[in-house]
User: Fold this.
Amino acid sequence: MGSICFIAFLCDPVQAARPLSANQPDSVYLFAYATNKNFNRNGLHFAWSKDKTKWFCLGPEHSYLRCDYGRWGAEKRMITPFIIQSPDGWWHCIWSLNEKDGTFAHAASKDLIHWKRQSYPVMAQGKNCLQPEIAYRHETGEYTITWISSSEPAGSTRYSTTTLDFKNYTPAKSCSGSSNKRETFVLTDTPETGTVHKVAWETVENLINEYQLVAYKNQLFNEQAADDPVRFAWLKPLHATLLVDTRQSFPISQHLFGVFFEDISYAADGGLYAELVQNRDFEYDPSDKEGNDKTWNSYKAWSLTGNQMSFHIDTVSPIHPHNPHYAVLDVASSGDGLANEGFDGIVLKAGEKYNASLFARLLNGGKKGKLTVRLTGKNGEVYGTAITRPISSKWEKYTVSFTALQDAVDARLEVVPQFTGKIGLDMISLFPQKTFKGRTNGLRPDIAQTIADLHPRFVRFPGGCVAHGDGLGNIYRWKNTIGPLEARKPQRNLWGYHQTAGLGYFEFFQFCEDIKAEPLPVIAAGVPCQNSGTGGSGQQGGIPMCDMPQYIQDILDLIEYANGDVKTTWGKKRAEAGHPQPFNLKYIGIGNEDLITDIFEERFTMIFNALKEKHPEITVIGTVGPFCEGTDYEEGWEIATKLGVPIVDEHYYQTPGWFIYNQDFYDKYDRNKSKVYLGEYAAHLPGRPNNLETALAEALYLTSVERNGDVVEMTSYAPLLAKEGHTHWNPDLIYFNNREVKPTVGYYVQQLYGQNAGNEYLPGKSSLAGNNNPAVQRRFATSVVRDTLNQVVIVKLVNLLPVSIQTDVKLDGLTNLASTGSRTVLTGEISSKTAKPVSDSIPVGPEFSCSLPAYSFTVIRIKINS
Ligand code: AHR
Assistant:
């Protein structure tokens, strides 16, 4: 037992943060502990004391290290941390993760503030590792780690392992004796247990500075427009100047604005993918929703229209092993139908044509006959009818088409056998003939057009978390998503629904081509999502090394599928799908905001090296974690720099305040290192609206992205699409339902950037007259670019203040400008979710003036006369 000291305590952050004077102590005690609050998810805390009697919490309870293990909401626990400092100065922290896994966690730090990647050495399957401790042997330089396993049938057993480097460990063996070098102190009102270390005062001072800095930043970053009436109560309309020296231009990326499509919130099935039948393949599975929905199975969305027929699911001799379930109808008397309700009903437009198709076969020598396929309403309305040819006893595809007789929002599709006996049915499908660009197996035209109207220069797909999946078995495999629909392999969508793979790699490539955007597929880096909850706790497992060569070959095959000659194995498959011409794939993303572990690094490096060797023409985009700081970000960047990865994918969902106060984020980036793809970002307010405040914060930040368009290659807001009633994440850029597409305010910002991109940045200097308040200055931003192809100068001005700004613009060095420019302004109430841009013309020239309304984004296009 460690010593328990119930000691009077003072946990006063103000006092803890007070700068000490000249007589500060040389050394103090530092207490490292974790509480069991929030199910042990609050990370590592420190308190300090001169005498182990009176303790000062840092923070209080500021988290200096948080656990990355396992799924959000269930894991990420840090239990009984134990810290030692080795003679080389490095601090090593180990902790227990949970009560079930035979693994503990390790992380190391030089300063107790910046921690290196975490590792989770597996010690024994099924035996937990509780209360781990480390001891260091000077003679051998070896660390001995001991722990208790309480999952032994015969009670608890102590185990130990040794390591020199916290990478390689000797096999765990049982050991005798007991140890507890932890101590317990009452810091606030409950006793906390941890390790105590004598440290230089400077160490504690640095820890104090760290949390003070974090607290200060949090205060800034949490500024919201709701407080503007008070914050800017004194502010009067402003005057600004923008001086641009057009002779100082430099080239910027021509792919700066794109989109990121992920199948989240029914973005694909039930969304962009125009299929109107839900669960067409009878492959819905309870595991799609982790068993949490009793109705989610092969029967989902299907029902019978009478009682002269029964219906069950079978798996004997399916159409294809990837599609094992099918429906069996046992028809006693003809006239009843098997009906599909669609995704929240089927929307029909009067006069439009629809194609229905299905696979069928007679079973047990059922009588030969035809099927009626019809579209019906709830009250018996018939909106369209067609009849198939006679059904045979082999699986065959039957197609019919009809014209909808009237508009409907909740129609259903019925398949009605005209005979008695048993029949097998599968892949029952209904598509409008009007798909985007008229493609077979195509996309909903209204949603696709809304995306196209952003003028995206690239499309990243298919995720996000969907790309790397929930556990190894859920990694998105592109080969499962091409070829005949009945042979594609559907799978669980980790957002809690079903992915038919009907919108697969071929369709993604084709969509990119149709909207003139570069395809940017993202492939898992041999590891699943770091928050995986299935198949092991998170990204602690990677694809086994013996399977990596095939995994890498699959990636090389993807390039052949996209770009290879029709005579190649995979190029031929592309041609068979109807596209003999290459898709001109130029980019591949490897990994998605992965946890940077040794397992990740090993696999990423293998894939990267293989791509570099076999396809130097492809630009690989690496990954640097889910945040704009922290271990994954730092170590992801280190790997990228070491390997010379051309571009890395950064992600950050932040408050509007973060975007306001971080406009210099890329100004300091080293131009000799990897370039950046800001692959996922959005401004998040409490309640997660997409409104004018979030949109203007993004617009403001994008001015700085354009300024850094020499190092930032690409950006994409996330997520792109969400279906009302099935939204797993907010905010999104475009909401939709079965009838309507609803672009958000943020959508218009993206569109204004996409439609007003340039290939040259024209540096300028903007200033607000008579005002040097940083809160004011940071809310006004400008960017000027030139589109040399179309000979236009584009001025972007963002005003995130509650007062107007009269702005004088001077474009030095350009005399041949048109005298009238087109102006588009997005403005409104700051909380508006419906603001839309409005365009007009204004007088312009090398010098002109314009008024920026309060809370507005203004884009001015000026033609350069030849
Ligand atoms: O955009 C939604 C999710 O956010 C993505 O799937 C993932 O990459 C990120 O965490």
